[in-house]
Automatic annotation (TrEMBL):
SMART domains: SCP. PROSITE patterns: CRISP_1. Residues 40-184, 235-391 form the SCP domain. The keyword Cell wall biogenesis/degradation does not apply. The lineage of its organism: Eukaryota, Metazoa, Ecdysozoa, Nematoda, Chromadorea. It comes from Panagrolaimus superbus. It comes from the Eukaryota. This is SCP domain-containing protein. Residues 1-28 form the signal peptide.
Amino acid sequence: MSSLHCGNKIWVLIVIVLSINCLLSVSAATFGCTTGQSDDYRNVALQINRQYRTLLAQGKAPNKCGQLPTAKNYYEINWDCGLETSAKVQADNCAMAYSSTPGVGEILFMASAASAKDAVKNGYMKLVNTPVTNGADPDTYSNPNNDWNRIVNYRALYVGCASTLCSGMYKTVCHYDKPAYSNQNLYERGDNCVTDADCTTIIESTCKNGLCIAPPKPDETINTQCPLNPSMNDYARDQLVKWHNYYRALVIKGNEPAAGGRKAPKGKNMYKIKYSCTIEQNAQNYANNCPYPTHSAPGTRTGWGENMAYMSGGTIGENMGKSVGLYYSELLTPGMADLVTNVVSFPGDMGAGHYTQVVWGKTYEIGCGGKLCGTYWHLVCQYNVAGNYNGTTVYEVPITGGNGGCTTDADCTTQAADTCSVSDGLCNRA
Ligand SMILES: *[C@@H]1O[C@H](CO)[C@@H](O)[C@H](O)[C@H]1NC(C)=O
């Protein structure tokens, strides 16, 4: 088979697929950007990006012969008005040259077209077909396919484009939120996602048509729960409460994999965590010192427990959410010794100390603070009551054959007035 034949055949296929799907999804979104371009324009550019990534994930994007390999844990692109604005600045200068806009992946085309919308559409159609002519491989940046790398780069999750009429030709510039690096892969080969659990880069992602969809970007400027601390926000607090209770409700069911091929025991009388602004302020005061990895002196936290994390990139809310999962992963690695009576023993169980604090049954309140020190977040969470008392159960274990979690108020016995949150089997502290 000649490469020309192979390329032509598939080129026809991709044009058809893209056109049909674009027609169906036009006019879906309102973007709220202010450069003066139309939402119709944005929709065309965005849908081509999304359709192409869907084809790529599913192994249906054409290569010189055959298709490009399927993509694992591969994410849908969203529009970003800030990237549109920076692209517009470059489009408006009309020079046929790449800009040095820092930190973005830039694509550029100049061609005559009937409208701005046609210009961006035609430009993209040409780019996504360059692998058909030149051949491409996701394991390395592909010099012959230049701008194509930036479209498929798995690191990029946002795009914004602008097209400006420059003496009879449209100059189109699109900016992606992350550059494609010349010595690194463009995406990870592997099966495309089938379930939400296959989408692991961003928490709470879902899988649709083989592509991972990130949850809507939270507004991390909202700070109503503990307004005296400007370093935290409501999204970060909600993430902390949500993931602590998620893992607490999960572990007491008795099916969670633990080190050594074992499972964490079923649990009972486990408190549901609430958020405390008082504890948050204390944790924030300590986080402000950029203290990782040194814990605060116990006397400065009135007996509360403490977990700390150190993470780069992202926002405080994203990292607070992720940190709970990292703490919890100590159940599997390195694990704790006794999963029958569920009693901790130090120093032997020290390696799972974050895990044991996250699921410590008698803990009912948390508060956390964080500070970006250089490029690393120093995150501090404090827990009332403290966990990790040597020789004490992490959480109570029901008698053999008993159920995990509460079903009635009578199952919540720490204080007489405690009640059962039936939906998750955790106990509300009165
Ligand atoms: C924890 O308790 C165990 C068992 O009683 C004991 O052997 C160990 O020395 C204690 N560890 C600490 C750090 O006190």
